[in-house]
Specification:
alpha+beta
């Protein structure tokens, strides 16, 4: 199964359904089931900014399963959509007009029992 490694607290915010998009500078044609891997690095500024969500932020493990249902180019129209959806969570993308990239839309997300494993760059494969 495909896996995407994401810094904390973003991985946990996706896992609990608060954040519905993950942003990358590259796009993928892949659509389907995805595992969310919480990387070993932490965005300390974001951890402080989003602490009121009170989410657990484990490191170095797969924490959720979902579906990549769409990959959307980030442009001004999409930034306006993000602002309507959740201007706090997506503020960095809304404000950073220099970001040229893509939003991976992650649906049907649910937490799973953590699987401790090292992450990788890009979409990578995990199989038991």
């Amino acid at each position: 199964m495909k896996v995407l490694t994401i810094k904390q607290p973003y991985a946990s915010l996706i896992a609990v359904g608060v954040k519905k998009y993950e942003f990358r500078t590259w796009k993928t044609n892949y659509r389907g089931e995805i595992l969310i891997h919480a990387g070993k690095s932490v965005d300390k500024r974001a951890l402080e900014e989003f602490k009121f969500y009170n989410v657990d932020c484990p490191l170095g493990c797969i924490i959720a399963k979902g579906i990549i249902s769409d990959v959307i180019e980030v442009n001004d129209a999409f930034r306006k959509q993000l602002e309507k959806e959740n201007s706090l969570i997506y503020n960095h993308i809304i404000q950073d007009k220099s970001f040229k990239g893509y939003a991976f839309k992650i649906d049907n997300i649910h937490l799973i029992e953590p699987i401790y494993i090292n992450g990788k760059l890009g979409l990578w494969n995990y199989g038991k």
